[in-house]
């Protein structure tokens, strides 16, 4: 059968994302074919298309890490899924298509009360938040957690997980227009990031120890957040929005400046203050 795909033949410019048609083979014995109804758009997709993501496949490649849809074909060893099942899943790129073949280990049935849009926007963000807090930060009850990009996909799920442990959560946002949304999500304190971020954070902590930081901005925000991390605190970095060019092609002078001015951490000081930095 034929399928439509969005493909990048050369990284560095989002305009290189073009629509193509190609043949799709019958699924292998452990695979199913999914008619894609919705895809999730993630920072990793943008960074991959710009050539800034370390896991970017060799070109040409099809972007897209998560999707939802309907099973239309299945391999001979598939017993737990049927044609017509509504599913959501992950793929190491390749979701920007109207049909895809995927190993059944990488998808699950869509909950009955979820629509396709909800299914395609859950797994990457939800699993990122879960892994950061549960596995790396090893969150315990009554901790203080700083969550950057508080109302982004990861931020929302991270706050909800942290609240299950009765955490005091401080969320940061880039625009005042997002304050109400952050408050609705239940953050105890909200900071609009600016030049006075460090002093704002000190004020919001109000004497509390900063135990966990989920960081995805980079640059000065990284540096100021780490400076206030308490002894035995855990600093989890999972992105760097500071490198986002905010345009369809790379801004090389900005990228070079941000790269050369990125924060440096002294290992000896880490020993003295007993603070951990982890990234994924």
From TrEMBL:
<dbReference type="Pfam" id="PF08240">
    <property type="entry name" value="ADH_N"/>
</dbReference>
<dbReference type="InterPro" id="IPR013154">
    <property type="entry name" value="ADH-like_N"/>
</dbReference>
<dbReference type="GO" id="GO:0016491">
    <property type="term" value="F:oxidoreductase activity"/>
</dbReference>
<protein>
    <submittedName>
        <fullName>Zinc-binding dehydrogenase family</fullName>
    </submittedName>
</protein>
<dbReference type="InterPro" id="IPR020843">
    <property type="entry name" value="ER"/>
</dbReference>
<feature type="domain" description="Enoyl reductase (ER)">
    <location>
        <begin position="12"/>
        <end position="278"/>
    </location>
</feature>
<dbReference type="InterPro" id="IPR013149">
    <property type="entry name" value="ADH-like_C"/>
</dbReference>
<dbReference type="InterPro" id="IPR052100">
    <property type="entry name" value="SV-ATPase_mito-regulator"/>
</dbReference>
<keyword id="KW-0560">Oxidoreductase</keyword>
<dbReference type="InterPro" id="IPR036291">
    <property type="entry name" value="NAD(P)-bd_dom_sf"/>
</dbReference>
<dbReference type="InterPro" id="IPR011032">
    <property type="entry name" value="GroES-like_sf"/>
</dbReference>
<dbReference type="Pfam" id="PF00107">
    <property type="entry name" value="ADH_zinc_N"/>
</dbReference>
